[in-house]
Design a protein that fits this description.
The protein contains five helices and twelve strands. It is α/β, with parallel strands linked by helices and about 250 residues long. The chain is elongated.
């Protein structure tokens, strides 16, 4: 009986010790890993406060370990203009957030603000601020009542929109930032200062690749020239392109 009672006491002490360790560990995780500070980088479109508020959008997000697990090992919902968020811990109470925002293809006027869409045609950001380097799109018709952030733009003419998105993708690839873009008769036009560039409705990569060297050459020959650069029929076999100055 004494041996059985002794064994029972040993088991009880072990169980109590394990429970105590678990409680202590839990208390440590709750209090030591309480998210108090956030360091955000990589964000241009969204402010730091917007990102941290988004990250702390559920009641468990006061804990830095939970935030780390959620954003690095699960598949959480992200802001519509963000492609990816990576989280690391600088220390148990400081969360470091690295944001990768989407490349924006253009923007239109919408509901007393600007509506930006990405290279896939997804409505990404609505803001009253103009984002530097993103072209304004003229002449794009869409159903303003059906706009939903994170969803495809409800355009009336898919083919025109697809051309705008494709041309924007190559403009971004070549580091070109037009002041605005427009569509006329199924053709895309981009504007760099006083120069209008006609890109046509196909072969955008080949044509966009010609813009920068031609504009540099024009700037040297005609520093103040305004006119139209015709690339709408350009292909690799072309030996020259046509620039038509505006009539004064």
């Amino acid at each position: 009986m004494k041996k059985a009672k002794k064994r029972k006491n040993i088991v009880l002490r072990i169980v109590l010790s394990v429970v105590g360790i678990l409680i202590l560990a839990g208390v440590t995780v709750v209090f030591l890993f309480r998210a108090r500070n956030f360091e955000v980088e990589g964000n241009d479109y969204y402010g730091d406060t917007t990102i941290t508020t988004w990250i702390q959008n559920d009641r468990l997000s006061v804990n830095s370990l939970y935030i780390l697990l959620k954003y690095d090992f699960l598949d959480p919902e992200l802001p519509s203009g963000v492609e990816d968020i990576k989280v690391s811990l600088k220390n148990p109470w400081t969360v470091r957030v690295t944001v990768k925002e989407k490349e924006l293809a253009g923007y239109v006027d919408y509901d007393d603000a600007y509506l930006y869409f990405d290279g896939e045609g997804i409505a990404s950001i609505r803001t009253t601020q103009q984002i530097e380097g993103v072209p304004y799109i003229e002449g794009l018709s869409f159903d303003t009542n059906s706009v939903e952030l994170g969803k495809a733009m409800p355009v009336e003419d898919d083919s025109i929109f697809d051309r705008i998105v494709e041309a924007s993708r190559y403009l971004n690839a070549y580091g070109l930032k037009p002041d605005r873009m427009s569509c006329e008769n199924d053709s895309v036009q981009v504007y760099f200062g006083s120069v209008k560039v006609l890109l046509g409705n196909t072969d955008y990569e080949e044509r966009v690749a010609q813009i920068e060297p031609i504009l540099e050459s024009l700037l040297k020959q005609y520093p103040d020239a305004a006119g139209t650069l015709h690339l709408e029929n350009y292909d690799s076999s072309a030996s020259s392109v046509r620039f038509v100055p505006d009539e004064e």
